[in-house]
Predict the structure.
Amino acid sequence: MTEPSDDAIGYRDAGVDIDAGNALIDRIKPAVGRASRPEVIGGLGGFGGLFRLGQDYRDPVLVSGTDGVGTKLLLARQLGVRRGLGVDLVAMCVNDIIVCGAEPLFFLDYYACGRLNVDEAAEVIEGIAQGCRQAGCALIGGETAEMPGMYAPGDFDLAGFAVGVVERDRIVDGSRIDDDCVVLGLPSSGPHSNGYSLIRKVLERNGGWEADPDRARALLEPTRIYVDDVLPLLERFDIRGMAHITGGGLLENIARVLPAGHDALIDSKSWQIPALFDWLARSGPVPEEEMRRTFNLGIGFVLIAKADDASAIADDLVERTGRSCIPIGRVVASSSPGPRVRFETA
């Protein structure tokens, strides 16, 4: 070890502030403590998060998912709005794993930045904790990485990781979908966290976000978390397939859960496309096909169930949550080489 000298440097001189990292942990402890479950063992600060699965399952299967928020981060940074990004991060992960019928158990986050701003990072992580509470899962751990040189000052990125559980014989995989099934859509809260590179291009063509700050803020509406909507339905109805409508839109995501020999016909007039998407299409301009394969167009999650159950599913959802469930299409037998999603006007 060398003796200290007048020109000695430390980690802080290189751009990494360990004290700020410790201050952030102290700041977020209350929020993380509220985003917990009884199965969590230990608390914040360990090398790994501990979660006891317990004896309540016969043949448990763990389901995992990971995602980020994408370039929605850039628009949020421009507007100085950060808290909703944490909800976005949780939503993009847990909405994926409930497609399999899994209950989200715990969540971990990764926050990377050029220089750690405790207030800004805390706002994001407190939003993550809020999203975990909405999803009923525990925020069991995470990592904050300060990397000067990798990220410019003010830049940051997010990644999330969710783990859930489902009984093996309750896995929803789409294999029992047939031509007696209908497609039910759960409304989105906006573009969610997809298509923001295109959205930012449209904004740029139309004077930037400063030209219409209210519309820009509407584009930052957090992604809807569907856990409370979907999991109770799985206990009461024979849901045969589900899709989280992310990148690829309705066209690609519904096709992912259809069995061979079946197509989905979507009635493009069965729901009112929100005005925000109409604005994007007109102001781009963005062609209709591109809109359909980039955005959710107001439908953020899809259920596929027997036609006879459709009305009861919709009634159940409204009674429990006040949220709607819209019949948007049907499944048909097909001789096409692979499952397809086609739009039609009834």
Observations:
- The mean pLDDT is 92.
- The two ends are 78 Å apart (CA to CA).
